[in-house]
Amino acid sequence: MRITAAIAVTAAVFFLNGAGCRRGPETGVIFGEREIRVGEKTVTVEVAITPAQLEQGLKYRPSLPEDRGMLFLFSRPGRRSFWMKDTLIPLSIAFIDGEGRIVGILDMEPDDGAESHRPGRSFLYALEMNRGWFEKNNIRVGDLVEVGRRAAE
Fold first, then answer.
1. Residue 66: inside a domain
2. Total structural domains in the chain?
3. pLDDT for 133-147, tens place per residue?
4. pLDDT in tens, 42-74
5. Is the residue at 152 inside a domain?
6. Exposure pattern of 124-140 as b/e (b: 16+ CB <10 Å)?
7. What stretch of H or E contains 25?
8. Owning domain of residue 114
9. What confidence score (pLDDT) does residue 8 get?
10. Which regions of the chain does DSSP assign to beta strands (E)?
11. Rg, C-alpha atoms of the chain
């Protein structure tokens, strides 16, 4: 399934309109916030949609509160790589297809960006959480992620 630019813009408006916002440290990049459902767990995520947000991610953050993360939303499915350059905290990442199913989960350690992390399958969303969060919460490949819920305002 191919997502058009109009759908991507609509998704961006949906995720950012009326959402809480958080500014990334040292960079000034602002992220919208949403609640999403991961398996049976509800978490608050910052949403990365724009090129600046997608590039910034969780770089330079000294910590990430429990049950909080970052959701990367892409305009179409693809086989992308993530790296940990300038990321200070160990993370786990779930790769999610267009149907909301987790297609891969990887652990990532801070490094100089030399290591590339990809699931080997196409995905539309990626969810970064503190390292070990998915295992701790019994979230596995095949579980559903509902990305359309709005955060309580």
1. yes
2. 1
3. 999 999 999 999 998
4. 999 999 999 999 999 999 999 999 999 999 999
5. no
6. bbbbbbbbebbeebebe
7. none
8. 5-146
9. 41
10. 20-23, 30-38, 41-48, 68-78, 91-96, 102-108, 123-130, 145-146
11. 14
pLDDT tops 50 at residue 11: no
Q: What is the pTM of this model?
A: 0.81
- The residues facing 77 across adjacent strands are none
Tell me how far apart the alpha carbons of residues 65 and 119 are, in angstroms, rounded to a whole number: 25
Residue with tokens 């509902």: 146
* Residues pairing with 130 in the sheet: 91
Residue 74 falls within a domain, yes or no? yes
CA atoms within 13 A on the CB side of 152: 2
Pull the structure tokens for residue 14.
């949906």
The amino acid present at 45, given as its one-letter code, is V
Helix residue ranges, H only, 17-152:
51-56, 133-136
- Does any domain span residue 113? yes
Block residue for tokens 């993530």: 82
The CATH number of residue 23's host domain is 2.60.120.1140
> Above 70 in pLDDT, residue 129?
yes
